[in-house]
Write a structure and sequence with these properties.
The complex is a heterodimer. Chain A is an all-alpha fold. Chain A has one domain. In chain A, strands 1-2 form a two-stranded antiparallel ribbon. In chain A, strand 1 and strand 2 form a beta hairpin. The longest helix of chain A is centred in the first third of the chain and has 35 residues. The radius of gyration of chain A is 19 Å and the shape is globular. Chain B is of the alpha/beta class. Chain B has 2 domains: about 240 residues, Rossmann fold (3-Layer(aba) Sandwich); about 60 residues, Alpha-Beta Plaits (2-Layer Sandwich). In chain B, helix 5 packs antiparallel against helix 6. The relative contact order of chain B is 0.12. The chains are: A mainly alpha, B alpha/beta. The interface between A and B is medium-sized, with 23 and 32 residues.
Chain lengths: ~260, ~325
């Protein structure tokens, strides 16, 4: 376990060096990110200048939701997206062989090998927005809701990761699955609003097929005590199942790649 | 008997490929009912390699060389047969096995393009859990042998193909594997870089005793590095033995080169063997092994006056290989 954490730090450090070498690009990316964050927070503020609540969501909850959204998307863009995109290149070019021959978990290498270090900023902005929103909600936050928030946030990460892993694993059979992932990113994008405001079919899709709804909306609700114990238990159970299934699927993919099942 | 580092019995790999016909209707039909064709890439090969040996795999494209290397390095499951490499069944990919082997491919890189080679090596140190001291001494030795000094700090994308291959070797051997599988390691390199890489492989083998299995299209690689060769064709093992005896076994003929003072009597040579070339009084003949002595004697006797020089040699190794792969390894009629 310690070895894996050290490797993770090493991966991040080498990629940070790379990012720092292209300073102009780095500044542009930071600028772009800030514009996106400021405009989306601004849009929410403007919206709430006209209304007290949107489908039951108050401004404070909405701010927490936005913060969580940036944390989730930030982590996803920080490491999962660059790593899985590189994984598909590896399958196309046959360089995955090198990864399979390392005395280390290939799933770990494929999932966390590459970083877009600039996205750390997005995570930090997300944390700042969340903290600000939670501070404004201080009256209703209890240790229990804070715990529920942490648990659902972790579950959200794992759910998104599991789905990404499953989608990427298809590359073993179909080689090109970029479009599948493009759809996934689009759904992640839609996660910046509470899933409650979407029509039923989309809400169902965003909490089951693409779990971004759970990853973002559920923690934002949990912090103000809007998630009851059975729901919490269900989310945790679903997370465990998703983790186990995705890992098994990955192993099947590797076996198929090496011709073990043929 | 020395312990075998690589021990292979009846190794077979059959690929099941989806057969696709041309045309839209055929494609649509194949969605419903897929027809498969079986292709035998490797067919029941057996051999053993002792510690410290350098063995060359010879064979044309599609002969099964890479499939064999991939099975031995644990990337492919065989259809049947057994193999043990440093005491492990390769395709189980056990920790002890993975730490003891290396696979290098001339046409693929394990280095990350955007970061410096030194950083890629650091990552490998961490993956293999190499103690700092051992890592440094291995790297120092590789740096010296490959002249890596100026290359390690540059991003891999800025290296030339030859430079990248040198760094590739460093990355592949940083964990001091006991067995290294080299698949076309000199592919696309210029002649001087090829010979540098060859020199490195030979020196590394001498110093650290790494067992090396090598495939190459360049005969020069094989001749320079391998005392022993294994010839594979259509998945079958055709020859396994010393490089020097390959010609004797695979080519049932010798080459007689006759230099004449004038063109006289050159027509007479047509009766003695297959004339391969004839220019400016030099005639090259291919003669069945068993009749070499008798024919040489006849040439010397009958051409006495006009004979300037005569030599009898084994055919060039490239020619032997070419003939084997062209399916012409039968004695020429003469």
């Amino acid at each position: 376990m310690r070895r894996y954490l050290r490797l993770l730090a090493l991966f991040a450090r080498t990629e940070l060096q790379f990012a720092l070498e292209y300073r102009v690009n780095l500044l542009l990316e930071i600028g772009q990110m800030l514009i996106v964050v400021v405009t989306s927070v601004g849009a929410v503020l403007i919206l709430y200048a006209y209304t007290q609540a949107m489908n039951g969501w108050t401004l404070e909850q909405m701010i927490v939701l936005l913060g969580v959204y940036y944390i989730v998307q930030g982590v996803e863009e920080l490491v999962l997206q660059p790593s899985f995109e590189r994984f598909m290149e590896h399958v196309r070019e046959g360089t995955l062989d090198f990864i399979l021959l390392k005395p280390i978990s290939s799933q770990f290498m494929v999932s966390f090998r590459h970083f877009q270090t600039v996205q750390t900023l997005q995570v930090l902005v997300g944390v700042a927005i969340t903290v600000y929103g939670v501070a404004r909600l201080a009256a209703v936050v209890t240790p229990a809701t804070a715990l529920a928030f942490a648990v659902t946030l972790v579950c959200g990460f794992v759910l998104i990761y599991a789905l990404l892993l499953v989608l990427s694993t298809f590359a073993f059979w179909f080689v090109r699955v970029d479009n599948l992932l493009a759809i996934f990113w689009a759904f992640i994008d839609a996660g910046r609003f509470p899933i409650d405001i979407y029509p039923g079919w989309l809400r169902v899709t965003m909490s089951t097929v693409v779990p971004v709804g759970i990853a973002v909306t559920v923690p934002a609700k949990a912090i103000v005590g809007l998630v009851d114990a059975p729901t919490l238990a269900a989310v945790v159970a679903a997370t465990v199942i998703a983790w186990v299934v995705s890992r098994a699927f990955w192993k099947i993919g590797v076996r198929s790649y090496t011709g073990a099942s043929a | 008997m020395t312990e075998l580092v690589v021990d292979v019995h009846d190794l077979t790999k059959v690929y099941r490929v989806h057969e696709r016909s041309e045309g839209l209707s055929a494609t649509l039909r194949s969605v419903v009912r897929r027809s498969f064709r079986e292709i035998t890439a490797v067919s029941g090969i057996s051999f053993g390699v002792e510690a410290g040996e350098v063995v060359g795999f010879l064979g044309p494209n599609g002969a099964g060389k890479t499939t064999t290397l991939k099975m031995l390095s644990g990337l492919l499951y065989p259809t049947s047969g057994e193999a043990r490499v440093i005491g492990h069944v390769p395709w189980r990919r056990e920790d002890g096995f993975l730490r003891g082997i290396a696979l290098l491919m001339g046409n693929r890189t394990q280095l990350v393009w955007d970061i410096a080679a030194a950083d890629s090596l650091r990552v490998l140190q961490e993956i293999y859990g190499l103690p700092e001291e051992r890592y440094r001494s291995t790297l120092r030795e590789l740096t010296e042998l490959l002249d890596l000094g100026p290359l390690l700090g540059k991003p891999v994308r800025n290296l030339s193909l030859g430079e990248r291959m040198k760094v590739e070797f460093a990355a592949g051997l940083i964990h001091s594997p006991r067995v290294a599988f080299l698949d076309e390691p000199t592919l696309g390199l210029d002649v001087s870089m090829q010979s540098r890489i060859r020199g490195f492989v030979a020196e590394h083998n001498r110093r650290s005793g790494t067992t090396i299995l090598l495939t190459s299209h360049y005969m020069d690689d094989i001749v320079a590095l391998c005392k022993r060769v294994i010839v594979i064709h259509h998945g079958h093992l055709l020859y396994d033995g010393p490089l020097g005896e390959l010609a004797q076994r695979m080519a049932p003929y010798k080459v007689i080169t006759v230099t004449l003072h004038d063109g006289a009597g050159s027509a007479f040579l047509d009766e003695l063997g297959t004339v391969v070339s004839r220019e400016q009084g030099v005639v090259v003949l291919r003669v069945p092994r068993e009749s070499v002595a008798e024919r040489t004697a006849r040439i010397v006797r009958d051409l006495e006056g006009s004979l300037a020089d005569i030599s009898v040699e084994d055919p060039a190794i490239e020619d032997v290989i070419d003939r084997v792969f062209a399916g012409a390894a039968v004695p020429p009629r003469s």
